[in-house]
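Async update (no meeting this week)

Hi team, since we skipped the sync, here's where things stand on the single-chain job. The sequence we agreed to prioritize is pasted below, unchanged from the tracker. I ran it this morning and attached the output directly underneath so nobody has to dig for it. Comments welcome in thread, and please keep replies under the output.
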Amino acid sequence: MDAAEVLILEQGFAATSIDSVIARTGLTKGGFFHHFKSKADLAYALVERYASRDAALLDDNLTRAERLARDPLQQLLVFVGLFIEATSELTEPNPGCLFATYCYEADLFDARTLEIVRQAMLVWRERLGGKLAQAIDLHPPRLPVTADTLADMMTVVFEGAYVLSRTIKEPQVLAAQLAHYRNYLELLFARP
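Output:
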């Protein structure tokens, strides 16, 4: 599955044939079809695994931030900082996000596969939105915002930075854009 994910991130789902997955993995066609009934089944298994890993990364970093700070705003700043730290170490552009790849080619996937993508995005909104709502209650922002739109903004920063980094071949774009998001939060919640 790792090889199939890399291929899909590199060239898209439509351009990734079963034969290219077989060639990359060394599987036989029979071996492939033993695990997956079709390319659509592979797509579902990949996005299900990706969503699980994505949720674990979110939970791990949020739990870490909660251990490092008590105040919800500080927890958010630490949370974003953990991602900045991780992405600062990239030496190659991040290959992107499987969710975005599936969205770009949505007409190739069935409803249950696309529902995993939708739910994964909503998990980020829910988890970060909850933390942001706590921060908003304790630290009234300087401008009118909602917790959900601020949570979605982090997803937008990630997805946009993946595209920009890959397009201009600059791995540091992701860390720089996350730093801007953190700066925005600091300015938004700064006391006058």
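Quick observations from my side:
The radius of gyration is 19 Å.
Residues 93 and 171 are 4 Å apart (CA to CA).
Reply here if anything looks off.
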